Amino acid sequence: MIEKDGVKGVGGFSLLYGFVQDVVKGTGKGLGIISNRTPDAQGIIRLASHAGKTHALSNAAYGDRSWPKVVNGEKWTKEAISKSVELDESREQLVQRLLDVLSTDTMPKQKENEEWDMYMNQLRHTIFVPSIGRDDLEELKMPAHEIGDTVKQKAAHATDGVYGTQKNIIILVDKEGKVFYFERTLYDRDAKPIEKEKGDRRFEYEIEGW
Q1: Taking the model in full, what pTM does it have?
Q2: How far is 173 from 9, CA to CA, in rounded Å?
Q3: Which of 111, 62, 54 is nearest to 79 (CA)?
Q4: Are 179 and 173 in contact (CB under 8 A)?
Q5: What is the C-alpha separation between 193 and 99, in angstroms, rounded?
Q6: Which of 14-28, 67-81, 92-106 is the least confident region?
Q7: Residue 3 has pLDDT above 90, yes or no
Q8: Ordered alpha helix ranges (H), 5-136
Q9: C-alpha–C-alpha distance, residues 61 and 65, integer Å
Q10: What span, in angstroms and rounded, lies between the C-alpha atoms of 103 and 121?
Q11: CB atoms near residue 97 (< 10 Å)
Q12: Residues 105-133: what's their mean pLDDT?
């Protein structure tokens, strides 16, 4: 993908890929990161070559520590895991701790007369993005659609609508290759809040060839 078409001109993203067993078994290969800033195959960043490491990714370039959500994400996730191990908690208790991290709202409030584009720069401060945007959506009566991990309700202009975190996803893999996938949907297709646990889905399976 990188060598043929490249990723230049693509909107900000960070794609983590690889085989989880390389991390768990400590093969040294780890996982790779492809982003819109990756110049070529030689520029792919590799991380998590060994177990016991905590890394956070966002739309910022990997290694950019100026984004509070990245720094806090690493810190709070590491603390949640350490505390869970210390207390010998169950999987469900660990998942709840991680959900607490994903649900932490540190988004600064929009100032009076602050332009939308300027306010969007504040997204770097929070892991969880609360529902933000225009407050007259009910009057617009426009259909909704999903965009990535956000909710945005169509309106008359690109900057109209509601924007916020739509899903929380947690993936756990044990040393035997058993995967636990948990997904919590926070808003429906009409950008309406979903009652807690009503939008939960969970799957368990084993990785072939582990």
Answers
A1: 0.78
A2: 34
A3: 54
A4: yes
A5: 17
A6: 14-28
A7: no
A8: 20-24, 68-86, 91-102, 116-119
A9: 9
A10: 19
A11: 19
A12: 88
